[in-house]
Amino acid sequence: MLLLKWIVALLVPLAVFTFVWSGEPIVNNVILGLIFGQQTAYASSLLLPAALFILLFYATILVLVGYLVAADSGQQGMLSLWIDILFFVLLPLLLVTANGLILGLALSVLVWALYIFVRNRIRQARNYVPPLPLAALNVLSPEQRSALLNRATSAGFWFATIFALLSLLVDLSYYATGTLPDVLLIWAIVRTILLPIVGYLLGQLGGRFALRYTLAPKANGNGNGRRKGANVDKKTQLESLSVARVKEEAKDFVPNDRPLRSAGAQRFYVLLLLAFLLFYPFIDRFLFGSGTDARLSGYGDAGYYVILALGLNIVVGFAGLLDLGYVAFFAIGAYTWGLIGSPQLTVLTGLHPDPQLLSGLFWPILFLAAFLTAGFGVLLGTPTLRLRGDYLAIVTLGFGEIVPLFFLQLPAYTNGTNGLIAVRSPAFPGVDWSTFTPIPYYYLILAMIALVIFANVRLRDSRIGRAWIALREDEIAAASSGINLVNTKLLAFAAGAFFSGLAGVYHAAKLGGVSPDNFSFGDSVIYLAMVVIGGLGSIPGVIVGALGVYAINQFVIAQLDTFASDPTSFLYPIRAAIVHVVPGFTFGNIRGLIFGVLLVSFMIFRPEGILPSSRRRRELHGVANEEEVVEVGALDAPPGSPGFESDVRVE
Amino acid sequence: MAMHSVQSPDNLDGTTTAPLLELSGVTKIFGGLVAVQGVNLQVPPHQIVSVIGPNGAGKTTVFNLITGIYRPSSGDIRLAGSSIVGLNPDQVLRRGIARTFQNIRLFNNMTVLENVLVGQHSQLRAGVLGSLLRTPGIVREEADARTRAIELLSFFGPALVARQDEYVINLSYADRRRVEIARALAARPKLLLLDEPTAGMNEAETLEAARYVRRLRDELQLTILLIEHKLSVTMGLSDTIAVLDYGQKIAEGPPEVIQRDERVIAAYLGKAPASQNQDAPE
Q1: Which homologous superfamily is B1-96+189-282 in?
Q2: Chain B neighbours among A 515-554 (CB < 8 Å)?
Q3: From A463's CA, which of A75, A139, A189, A542 has a CA 20 to 30 Å away?
Q4: How far is A165 from chain B (nearest CA, A)?
Q5: Are B211 and B187 a contacting pair, CB within 8 Å?
């Protein structure tokens, strides 16, 4: 029954992807183009990466089947799993197919929110109690282990076989109607023979992978019977850990009742996501048809928002310093490259460097500009050191206004309102950076995002990260624990400004120009909204928040108008009705209103953000306390007396 | 009335030990309010000195003055001979004075272990570059810090160690006090300032707290300055007691002497007839 459960669960989405969307076309074109050397609608430079992606994709799915079947303890029902897969995988797949990536994902998010809400209500009504994590965990005997492996292997085999037969049927039906080239029939037959074998092997691989995560007896040289206890030790070890930690660790051991959430499964998701991101420029044409370049350029722009949000997350999320003028650092970064990497350099210094040389210097200047911006971060931070909360926010807001004005009011140096043009792109051997092909910028921003995420995670989990969080929680206690408040705050500003500078340089290079009206207070607010909606202090949350807010601002609201112009859509009569009352109405006009309503709704219903850090969720929704709760301050001396601690200021 | 100030205690071999902490004429004025006036205090090393007095007497203010949260309006504070007036709280900590707070200031959105790790901030050296690169030295430092944090928690028994990954707001009041003390110990202080460590505790918990305060002095070789309201605790625990009232020190001496001091009794009970020799008020 386990086999049936997972095979159906994974087969249906895979079939939809292959036959309804673009899985089959990709494979067919790759086979025709690369193996049989025929002319296809797609350039061969596109086909090779696409082939790699498809290979990786299907192989991963097959291994995943083996893993999941081995990892499941069988406690979760078939139906509940299928319904979950339906809402979380199948529906988004169909929505993205029909509406494009951005709109499809946006609609999916709505569906997910609704589904989770309804599901929780149903569970509450039925007094659903999730099973204890340790209950399902057991030490596995060697027989049990080989049974798991067999299960995984046969799952892989049957999954591949059924899929192969299904594909064969589809291809035969196409062949019967004459739309399938003969050569592809050869491929279909080869595939039907090969797939079960591959499935067998990859399923076994998945099973072996799952066995890495089980509680296993360790093979130990000294003493035969004695070491059987080693595996039990781990279990008792888990039992003696705090309840909070047990849930975390037990989640990763298999078999458990939620294998989709285990650490092993997560590796697969990361792999699939990385493959998708890396190969996206090449498979976009297959997935979404025309308009690839525009989309890629859009992603390049969305990318620097992610970096900005991650930088602001350090200042506001980790260290708790409300910064309302973050756009200032962005402007500094942009103008740095704008002044150096454009003809303005000649105006400023009289040098006439070779433009190619300038482009080559992009890379060192990228980091130098970031450090320069970090220096300005320290400069801004210094007057705010003694300020708290609201006052700090006002000063940062002021700075956010001053810097763009500064650039505006020095036309001799910065070309004032006309801005800077002809800003150079970077140079990388063998790569064409002209704006006609946005692919290099796409990979550049991916690399930059990867670096920024890496740096953020390292900082968060270090001594400095702890100091920032302590600073946010309680300044006095932090100081009394040895944290130098000045240095820690300035470091937070500097780190945030550093990433902002990186984003600024990228933006200037990609846009090819810098203008002072690109940097306004409204932008600072958008960055803040990204961080707060995503989840203050949570790195994945902030990334999702940045992409989400950008998508809503740029695409979704604009798409509403296109959608409403279509007489067949449900928005058409609605808009017609509104236009009766308010002539000249378009959704684009009320973009600000829609965005504002969204923000307010978020703050009311989910203030902790989309993907909150566990701390924040606890902070905003309270904790079920089994122990006594003592209000902080219960023993305070009465206000006004010298012992009134809440009034202390560090002098 | 002449202030009876304690001389540096004589050791058994006749030598005197220099005080670890010395307050001389410390005064703090807030606007028009004189919170602390002319307080002289000497804390000899490896002793438990208690500061007692009615509410509003200025005890916590004295703590805040010592740890640098306030700056004295006049007077001097010396730790092992060198002045610490004007230092920031983090600098005072690095000199060797750690403290706990009257109303427990833990980092609520961090776990028990993380709170104690923050306490080790001054003992660790990881900087931005080291944290980014995670050099072997830094990795080892973090691992050692974690081990040390667990050791500190185990001073109070195995219970807190088992709960090291829980958020501190989930803990009982007594446990939160212990975590705060562990966090203070993490900085390897020479002098520990405990502000009402038994506040809010029942008799059993108070007894246990008094026991571990004594263990702090005996096992960890700490000097302890204690603010305490429960006189039973103070009398049993302290080597010396200093009594404050309205910002001034009105008495100082060993527990037996303080118990019978008229000014102390008057301060706690108001101006009562001094004829009866009653036990110190609870």
Answers
A1: P-loop containing nucleotide triphosphate hydrolases (3.40.50.300)
A2: none
A3: A542
A4: 51
A5: no
